[in-house]
Structures are given as C-alpha cells and as structure tokens.
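Holo prediction. Input below; ligand is uridine-5'-diphosphate.
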Amino acid sequence: MSQETLDSPPPRICILTADSGGGHRAATRSLTEALTGRARVSALSLLDDHTPFPINTLSEVYGPSVNFAPNVYHILYQAIASRRRIVALERAAYPLVHRRIAKALADEQPDLWISVHPLQVDVPIWNLRQMGSRAPFVTVVTDPVTPHPAWFCPDTDLCVVATEAAREVALACGVPPQRVQVIGLPIRRAFEEPRTETKAETRSRLGLAPDCPLVLMTGGGAGIGRMLPIARAVTARLAHSAARAQIVIIAGRNQTLLEQVRSQRWPIPLTAVGYVENMADWLAAANLLISKAGPGTLAEAACLGIPVLITDYVPGQEAGNIAWVEQHGAGVYEADPGRIAALVEEWLQPGHTALAAMAAQARAIARPQAAAKIADAALALLRERTVA
Ligand code: UDP
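Structure of the complex:
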C-alpha cells in the first residue's frame, strides 16, 4: 500500500472531459485506472452538461461537422488558432456560462482538477480563481503534435504534453517552462498489459476467422473518415488477389455509417460493429489498421505494434500526427482509395515484410506507461501544495 493511502484519506480528483470523439473519454478512463487506489476519481463534463444551448451541443456536432463539412471545420479552427483569439472568444462566452459552471465546480470541490479537454481549461481556471479555489489544476493535452492554443492557459499548475513539438506550443502560449512536462498520451491499461493470446486466438474469440489476416478500419469514437469508399476499394481489390484478408469496420457512434456498411454486399468477409468497449482486443487481432489520424488510436496501435495506414485526419489538431507516424516508420499516409487498396494488397502478399517492419517501428514509439507517470506527477503536485 502506498504512503498516500496509509497516512491520509485518498485525495479527490475530478477529471474535466467531454464526449466529442472518443479520445477525451479514453484519456479519462486511462487516468482513472492509473489513479485507482490512490485517489477517489470523478468525471465531469462542463461542456456537455453545464453550458446553455447551443454550446452544450458542440460535442454532439463534432463528428458530423468534421465528416460532412471538414473545410468549414478547418476554417473555424484556424480562425481561433491563436491564444489571443481563443481567449477573446472564451471571454465573450464567459458571461453566458460562468454561473452554471461555477455551480458545477463548487458542487464537486475536489483536491485536484485534471482537464483532458481543450475547451475546459481557460474557463474553469478563471472560474476557480474567481471563487478563490486553491485546488491545483492539471492540463493533460491529448493532441500530441499540433495541439490547439486553447489547451494552454498560462495559469494551469501543470501542463502535460506528449511531444517536444507540443511543449514548444505550450511555451509559445505563455505556459511557464517549469510547469510543462513531456510525458506522453495516457493509454488505457488494456493496451499495455502483456497479451496472453495469439492473434488467431483473439480473432476466434471475437467471432472472426482465426487464420485469415485482419484489416481493421476505425475512425475514432465518432466514426470519422471515408470508411465506406475505402472499404469498397480495398475489398474489390482483394477479391481478385492472392492476398487474403478479412475486414472489420468499427463505426463508433456513427450509426449512419454502421447501417450503410451492413446494408451492402461485400466481396470478401467484412464485419461491421458500432462503438466497442474492447478496442484493445480488436486492435490486437489485426495485422493492419486503416484509420484517421486520431491520437488515441495511433498511440494504442503503437502500444500493440500494429502498423497503420492513415487515410483521413481532422484538419488542424490531427495534421501533425501523420508526420509523427511516418517519420518513425510506424505507418504511411495515403488518401486515395485506389492507392490505399493497392498498398493493402501489396503488404498482405505472402512473404511481404513491410507490415512486420512497421510493426517493430510502432512498438519503438509506444509509451504505454504514460498514464501512470501522469498520475504520479499529479499526485506529486498535490503533495507539494499540501506541504506548502
Ligand atoms: N474507441 C473505442 N471504441 C470505439 C471507437 C473508438 O474505445 O468503438 C476509442 C479508441 O480506442 C480511442 C478513442 O476512442 O481511444 C478515439 O480517440 P482518437 O484520439 O483516436 O480519436 P477521436 O475519437 O478523439 O477523434
């Protein structure tokens, strides 16, 4: 048992999160797992549950707006992609939201706050300072390479980022260097635990053909990206090839995509599922991941040594993730469905070595311990404050 639990009741920690995509929820889960036994952890979404309409719909419209109007999303993203502009926008919204947010924060009153969402950093910090709260505030940035300036309130007590590039953004936004730590993206425990099954055994448990290579397609929690045309191109190509494969599409919360995929006939075995809780199993069963450049998914694939073919990205915050994967040789970016299909066919040819090489590179960039290290850093901060 740790010293913390022997000497005093475990501290209360509240994680500020939201349902936009799946990355924030996954980060919340991983930090909760890492803190279990050392703190009492709760989660709160100020954005989804404690703001007025239409602000409270932002999480819900995130997936559809990125999917159906990526250019509009990009223009809006760029319009507020400076510390000065995002702060001006948040200050303009503050009178509309601060009373309800103050009540939610006061109801919770933990010993320490952790935010894993860029739109829940400035406003709660301003609110807490106004309320006279001394509880430390930790920001855990879940966009590893090109994070939005909204993440970087200079008044945060600790800002955890995943890469040196993100640290540079934090410093440029005015976060004092001593408050920035480069640790990594928090990943759920299921992705770091040693696997006891072979790929064939996992496939069998998931109801798939055990001996047929698996190409897994995902688009984050909201099912973002062009999975349908890409699946058509890949399956058409593999149907007339020596390369054998089965496909699984994880549509996440994109119900329209799930229905569209299920209503079609496919020339090779293809399974479509909605939001899954056991992503580690599906990834571990795969030989290749086809995905948008979601940071959580890429980091999880790296932990399990799964090569990735990136086909889409959310403009702005995910753009840098592509270079991160390609520079390390853990995957490739290709947007054209025809060329994607050609690459998949080439890599799945018997005896081809590309997938094994990328899998080794993926393992080399994995940081499976990040959640535990972030938990340590947050609890150390709390101890410092308690002593001071
Ligand atoms: N995820 C999941 N089940 C699903 C789809 C996604 O658990 O059916 C998780 C996935 O494992 C990852 C997160 O949702 O942890 C997606 O995060 P990412 O940063 O890749 O993209 P986002 O959804 O935030 O755009």
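The chain is about 45% helix and 15% strand. That is the main takeaway for now.
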